[in-house]
Amino acid sequence: QVPVVESGGGLVQAGGSLRLSCGVSASIFSINTWGWYRQAPGKQRELVAAITRGGTTNYAESVKGRFTIFREGAQTTVYMQMNSLKPEDTAVYYCKVQMYPEPYDYWGQGTQVTVSS
Questions:
Q1: Which end of the chain is more exposed for a tag (fewer CB within 10 A), N or C?
Q2: CA atoms of 22 and 73, how far apart (whole Å)
Q3: Cβ neighbours of residue 44 under 8 Å, at least 6 residues apart?
Q4: Kind and range of the H or E element at 114?
Q5: Distances (CA, A) of 14 to 18, 53, 88, 100, 111
Q6: Tell me: the pLDDT tens digits for 7-19?
């Protein structure tokens, strides 16, 4: 079991910003990919952004140009800077790490992001 802990959620007005953090207790060399997902009430969980250990990123179309996923140096913590937030960004945000070479995924407990109009 690999502990994954998210933080940084909260309540913000539309147009505001938040930065989420995903802390992982594991060696950097055992992690293949970090991903941020979100789940709004009554909706399926969806991928928001992901980054590989090599630094390759991908984003959902709905957040391109507004959200940035990044990692600093050799740290296993991944961040997601969320700017120009919209009410439709309201959801519980989860971090998932995909391990390597073992084919296991680990999820955090989630952090609530609420954007008021």
A1: N
A2: 15
A3: none
A4: strand 111-116
A5: 11, 32, 10, 38, 18
A6: 999 999 999 999 9
